[in-house]
Amino acid sequence: MTERTLILLKPDAVERGLRGEILRRLEAKGYGIVALDQRVADADTLAAHYAEHEGKPFYGPLVEYMGSGPLVAVVAEGEGVIAGFRSLAGATNPTAAAPGSIRGDLAREWDAPVIQNLVHGSDSVESATREIGIWFPALG
Ligand code: RTP
Ligand code: MG
Fold it and tell me: What does the entry list as the binding residues for ATP (predicted)?
């Protein structure tokens, strides 16, 4: 079924100049881009986006990391794009992420209080709907 997902090119991806490489992989796979916007995320947006992680030890560092510089929010579309982009992204931990994936090829572990792994992708239809509403209210 054609569906939409919310992708974030996190601040480390922007900082390292990897926007083009990541978007190239998304487009090469055949997914469409419905919306794309670079911005510095504000605290309310990050609190809403990461509500499920509130109270976890890495929550504070996660919000700090995600607000540390510009990120690129993207709505992508296609058959199976939610699971498909998660597959392109690879495992959360860059060391465990398979070669060939965005995180496996382009990210590594650092001595940091939170895992920095270049991209976010919605993990379900419900999450995608919720997250698109947070980042692109006009599309929600
Ligand atoms: P995402 O939401 O960013 O697509 O990543 P994910 O589903 O693979 O990972 P999730 O469990 O939702 O965690 C969200 C983000 O928080 C950071 N994280 N750090 N132990 C840690 O230091 C830790 N655990 C999670 C990562 O940046 C992860 O992508
Ligand atoms: Mg997640």
Answer: 10, 58, 86, 92, 103, 117
Share of the chain above pLDDT 70, in %: 100
Report the number of distinct structural domains present in the chain: 1
How far, in Å, are 47, 82, 111, 132 from residue 121 at the CA level? 17, 7, 24, 11
Domain range enclosing 35: 2-135
Distance (Å) from CA 44 to ligand 1 centroid = 18
Q: Is residue 140 part of a domain?
A: no
Residue 140 pLDDT exceeds 90: no
Instruction: For residue 76, give Cα distances in angstroms to 80, 109, 127.
Output: 11, 27, 14
Residue 37 maps to which CATH number?
3.30.70.141
Cα angle 32-80-98, degrees, rounded to a multiple of 5:
95
Give residue-wise pLDDT tens across range 62-83.
999 999 999 999 999 999 999 9
Model pLDDT, residue 62: 98
